[in-house]
Amino acid sequence: MSKFNETSSDEIVLPKPNEENGKIDSAKDFQEEDISVVKNLQGNYALTTAQIGQIEIELHLLNKRLEQVKQIRQDLFDRYSSLQEEESNLVKNLNEKYGDGVLDLDSGKFIPTE
To answer: Within a 10 A sphere around the Cβ of 101, how many other Cβ atoms?
Structure first.
């Protein structure tokens, strides 16, 4: 009994002719119902393949966006470090100018530590 050959393409490959006599063993007409089943299977392959492609594109775009977010995060951490350095320099300069103490920002008064 002959069987269909499976392929990864969109076509069904029918059995090859018998090499001895060049004829296909007992050729028969396909019933419309069977043709419909084969076409349905092909359609499902095509749809699934397209969906896989769409998912791959979405993953690519998400990875690209993730890289952008990571860069923004790194920029913010760099800015945070810069602010810490700026704060350290400000505290050093204010201590040199006013000495050790506490600044009340609301009143603008500096209270030296004794």
So the answer is: 13
